[in-house]
Design brief:
alpha+beta; globular; Nuclear Transport Factor 2, Chain: A; about 210 residues
Amino acid sequence: MYRPRLTITVIIFNLVATSIAFAQDGIIGPHQLVDESAELILSTIQEQRNIYGNVTNAEMVQALVEVLEPVIDFSSIASAVIGNHSSGVSTDQAELFRQIFKTTMVRLYLESFMAFEVAKIEVQEPDNDFTANSGRATVRMIASATNNTTYKINYSMRTNSADAWKVRNIVADGVNLGLTYRNQFDGAMSRYHMSIDQVIANWDEDAIVE
């Protein structure tokens, strides 16, 4: 059974993920993608909640993996989390970690959605120097909770080889999530005496962002 393990930073991460989760058939800019997708993904998650209730399960996780995977570059994020340890990680181990990393983040997404009721998402205007052909963008958002608390999110995006925009990192209220998880991976490698197998086996329990 999945156990709720929620912090506001994880909640923000997953809120941001919801806002861009539906891949578009055409190539559109990152800000437009975020803006057009927000209401659609939130309504989709609510539909899942109506079906399964407030307790997350494997079916809900898999359904949302299929929704989020086209636009969130889980593989690149997981590879960055492994970081300097990559030389000691086999191809099979790296792939297994990527899959577990992805599933863990989507599970946290589900648990977070249950705890954080989204009232409004506002996508800020692009920076004056933004150009779509640069292949990089920072989408700035303000998320408002039902208690009127607001959070600032900077969402780093890049284009892939097909010129589709992908999520590569998030800074939520000053917390760099990619760096945080990389530090956690480093700590886990030390704690488990450089055993990547142990890190993988315990990642679902260890992956917490304060």
